[in-house]
Amino acid sequence: MAPRTSFEVGGMGHSIKRKEDPRFIRGKGTYVDDVQLPGMVYLDIVRSPFAHAKIKKIDASKALAIPGVLAVITGQDLAKYNLHWMPTLMSDTQMVLPVEKVMYQAQEVAAVLATTRYGAADGVAAVEVEYEPLPVVVDPKKALEPGAPVLRTDKKDKKDNRIWHWEWGDGAATDRAIAEADVTVKQDIYIPRIHVASIETCGCVAHFDKVNDKLTVWMTTQAPHAIRTVFALVAGHVGLAEHKIRIISPDIGGGFGGKVPVYPGYVIAVAASVLTGKPVKWIEDRMENLQADSFARDYHITAELAAKKDGTLTALRIKTIADHGYTDAAANPSKFPAGLFHVCTGSYDLKAAHVEVDGVYTNKPPGGIAYRCSFRVTEAVHTIERMVDLMAHQLGVDPAEFRMKNFIKPEQFPYKSALGWEYDSGNYAGALQKAMDKIGYAELKREQVEKRQRGELMGIGISSFTEIVGAGPSKHFDILGLKMFDSCEIRIHPTGKAIARFGTKSQGQGHETTYAQILAEELGIPAADIQVEEGDTDTAPYGLGTYASRSTPVAGAAAAMAARKIQDKARKIAAHLLEAAPEDLVWEPGKFSVKGAPNKSKTIQDIAFAAYTNHPQGMEAGLEAVSYYDPPNLTYPFGSYICVVDIDTGTGEVKVRRFVAVDDCGNIINPMIVEGQIHGGLTMGFAPALLEEISYDEIGNIQGGSFIDYLVPTAVETPKWETDKTCTPSPHHPLGAKGVGESATVGAPAAIANAVVDALWHLGVRHVDIPITPPKVWKLLREKGVAG
Amino acid sequence: MLVKVAINGEKHEADVEPRLLLVHLIREVFRLTGTHIGCDTTHCGACTVLLDGRAVKSCTIFAVQAHGREIMTVEGLEQDGKLHPLQEGFMAEHGLQCGYCTPGMLMTSYAFLKKHPTPTEDEIRRAISGNLCRCTGYVNIVKAIQHAAAKLAQGGS
Questions:
Q1: Range 66-95 of B in CB contact (< 8 A) with A
Q2: ipTM surpassing 0.90, yes or no?
């Protein structure tokens, strides 16, 4: 689509440079640890070395004797105010600080307040805690066995470790279809626990101003407005009313879902500030971040896929055990305990499907948040893409051809999936064909045959994913009852410049630029003349925040709708100025002109000035609008990725030789930013496929709890991404746009895993769980007798 | 202990605990907050600064070790209101998203290009492998450094 505006105006389709960058490249951003207030004190946290233990005694005397240590806060202290437990986003309960026992290694046990950062750390080292270890439950399958220790003894009626059981779809029809199928494939797939590991950890500065009775919290949050409401609900009984709480989400150094939850550290810092009247800073270190903050994934899946002899897919059945740690602190819409996992029929026209998920308590950190993906969509995509590939290989059909045969066809949109989703638009075959052409699919297949004859291991993997983003229609989507709309408020100043504020919060996605471009597109005011602000709850309109690729689908739509309200009023003002009837005016971005008399026109800047100096009698002055947008549906971006891997038989190392990604996110606002999102998403898909995992030993000791052993990819391992796109606009989004920030994270792991299995299929390998590490592959090669 | 350093050409001194890390001296004592902290184990590189021209991770050096030496931070890249070609490159090529790793990336690249003015892509990737970025997938960071190398070769500052 050719841009409608000039590059100088910078509307949709222009790769204008980012408005955020001038401060970041000078080191002048303001991240939370950059906030320094007079009289500020520091909070640091004592953490448990045990995964499950009774707390017998906390002796703070030595810590309190250290000069500069002001206080040691325990669960008993918070219990006096009934603040020792807090609700999670999934309406479970989580300890702020424990009174009786700890439930995972690195859990918060006590907090030390001191005048300096180093003093607080000294205090932490000096707090003596006496524990009595309890039996540890690490494996969620064992947690469900009869006789397993019941972990949540705080819940009076809880007799087992099952959090919930959830089912979706027509079980009987699915069982029937599978029983009648000519071919079925069944596979256990484990998608391990991983961590977003944004380069900035979490933290806050809480400042309770006793004179004005106002709490201001600068914090690393992706959802400042929701956090304000949660704080008011949780701490209302100690006098924190919502109008006296201001959450400021400053520049955020990466979020990816990890900065959605409320962590105990934030709450303790707030409590400490309210109690002392001093500003309190709490900043996690990296190990605390990896070991205690919300994790992602940890799904133990068993999937079964059925097909007819001719390769037509018929049914999918999935059973999953979801390890949530000791509390369900997932960031999901309230209605869907397993997130949007039931988008698991993917890009395929399956007539029957059924999903069951059991949430389980274990002695691990709580979570179930995203890792740069919309609620559990990566788990869904990984499963269906692995299963479809398995079926194609089983039938001896080329995986690309097999996908082409079973894709939902363009003419079937809007398409109602077997599990009830209404896909808005798609052209799956178009994206796959483009990826095949770009990578030279046929030639690669020939090369693979030759290599195999020489004993070399080369694999080609495809992933043709469908994403589901932009939560959400409020009839289905809320978090703790808060409907998942989002917002934009625009004020046009008399001189034609503007400020716009949003309920979302960028963590690097470039909202200041993208939103300005949407408004430039809709109003013709140059993007450079539009200031975009987010993240201050005292000034921005209420919104649910940025995660699950919802900013463009929801707040971006709100921007367009608010701009259209402004355009409506501008038309009336222009009609007044031009002495014409409003309906006789023609709009093009930036001006109204009289139909048939193009020389008679008024620019948006003329109109803005008139709105304050010469507005029609009977009309209110000013040029402002606000929109709270409730999307009619989600958006369904999609894409096809093809990956080529070579496997070193000597070391088991998987080398991604090429990776072609064709994405379709509908109409694009800033192509440069979208491509950057895809590069980043691909890298966060590559990482769990080959490198990242957090696991636990049998007594709950974390493995992968620092950057020493949690392997975030560097520039050396990261493949040289090749990207391209197709464009299938969303029919319901006002700009035809879809979300894109997470597509690649969702789609990439399956392409890599499929390539590895493809390379090893002839040896009898049917599946490899991610991360596909050299030791794992080498072990397989040795079993098959081909290790070099 | 008294520490005297020059940061970006300006003299600073402070009386500090011997255990104070250089990154905290820069950020909290001298309030130059462009240098960031992303880990505790010298892996992420967000805290990279130049110490006598050499790129170092300031989270793993004591402030007192910098006594009498020259430090350059991200705030020192812009000279007389003119951005360094690396800063221009990162903007032009969309080499940053959240901006948190950016100062460390810039300083590592700065030291690297001084020694290797015409690097290959693989050399650039190796040079920045001690700096983690979670947002960009590195593609555009590599392009940004190439952009700067080309500009510097043409006689940019």
A1: 73-75, 77-78, 83, 87, 90-92, 94
A2: yes
Per-residue pLDDT at A84: 97
Q: Which residues of A touch B37 (CB under 8 A)?
A: 33
CA–CA dist B148, B88 (Å, integer): 7
Smallest CA–CA distance from B36 into chain A, residue: A200
Residues of chain B numbered 5-24 and touching chain A (CB < 8 Å): 17, 19-20, 24
Rounded CA-CA distance A367/A330 in Å is 5
Q: With a CB-CB cutoff of 8 Å, which residues 25-44 of chain A face chain B?
A: 25-31, 33-34, 36
Determine phi and psi for A295, rounding to 5 degrees.
Answer: -95, 175
Note down the domain range covering B30.
2-76
**A323 has a chain B CB within 8 A of its CB:** no
**What integer pLDDT is reported at residue B156 of this predicted model?**
61
From CA A409, how far away is CA A600, in angstroms rounded?
Answer: 48
In which band, very low, low, confident or very high, does the pLDDT at A634 lie, cut at 50, 70 and 90?
Answer: very high
Identify which of A419, A536, A513 has the alpha carbon closest to the alpha carbon of residue A466: A419
Residues B67 and B7 in one domain: yes
* Residue numbers in A near B124 (CB within 8 A): 715
Q: Return the structure tokens found at A251.
A: 């520049």
Query: CA of A202: which chain B residue's CA is closest?
Result: B38
Token digits of residue A683? 């890298």
At A492-513, the pLDDT tens digits run 999 999 999 999 999 999 999 9
Peptide bond into A771 cis (omega under 30): yes
Q: CA dist A530 to A497, A516, A545, A565, A625, Å? A: 6, 6, 21, 17, 14
Q: pLDDT tens digits for B52-84?
A: 999 999 999 999 999 999 999 999 999 999 999
Report d(CA A150, CA A360) in Å as an integer: 11
- Look at chain B and count its residues: 157
B36 with B66, same domain?
yes
Is A372 a known active-site residue? yes
Q: Go through the domains of chain A in sequence order and give each one's CATH number.
A: 21-29+486-629 (3.30.365.10), 32-134+202-283 (3.90.1170.50), 295-416+425-471+633-783 (3.30.365.10)
Min distance A232 CA to chain B CA atoms (Å): 29
Grade residue A340 by pLDDT with cuts at 50, 70 and 90: very high
Q: How far is CA A645 from the centre of its chain?
A: 28
What average pLDDT score do residues A86-104 get?
Answer: 96
Burial class (CB in 10 A: 0-12, 13-18, 19+), A600: middle
Give percent of chain A above pLDDT 70: 100
Give pTM, 2 decimals: 0.98
Question: What pLDDT was estimated at residue A239?
Answer: 86
- Residue A511 identity (one-letter amino acid): H
Dump pLDDT digits (tens) for A520-571.
999 999 999 999 999 999 999 999 999 999 999 999 999 999 999 999 999 9
From the candidates A94, A105, A107, A222, give the one annotated as an active-site residue: A222
Residues A25-53: tens digit of each pLDDT: 999 999 999 999 999 999 999 999 999 99
Average pLDDT across chain B, whole number: 97
Which of the following is catalytic: A373, A488, A643, A665?
A373
Q: Which of these three, B76, B110, B128, is where a domain ends?
A: B76
Which residues neighbour A524 within 8 Å (Cβ) at sequence distance 6 or greater? A5, A9, A11, A588, A589, A590, A591, A603, A604
d(CA B132, CA B139): 13
